Amino acid sequence: MKAPGAVKPDVEMVARYLKLHARAGVPLENMKLALVLHGGAGKGALNDEAYRKRFGVANPNTKLIQDLIGVGVQVILCGQTQTACGFHREELAPGVHVALSALTAAVTLEDEGYQLIP
Q1: What is the bridge-based pairing of β-strands 96-99 and 34-37?
Q2: Per-residue pLDDT tens for 11-58?
Q3: Which CATH architecture is the domain 9-111 placed in?
């Protein structure tokens, strides 16, 4: 388990995916990505204040998540994780959406043409 001050690997993976394809010449507007956070990764969706309150440090994922949202990546928190962890809507970083569950998000995204990258 990573320390509370470490960026979540899933968040880093999406950023690397975008950079890799951009460097290969794929225009950003041709990349449609979504990041679904659930389980232990769900805390990455918290704003700095809520994260600091729970873990004693600012959320190390904030800048990267905001950058991803800024280029059009959907960032979705599993609603079951939100409930189980006691995260309130106002504690989430700006731009983070909540789905009923990670499974619901995955099925919905696949119906919209997204492919799962495990």
Answers
A1: unpaired
A2: 999 999 999 999 999 999 999 999 999 999 999 999 999 999 999 999
A3: 3-Layer(aba) Sandwich (3.40)
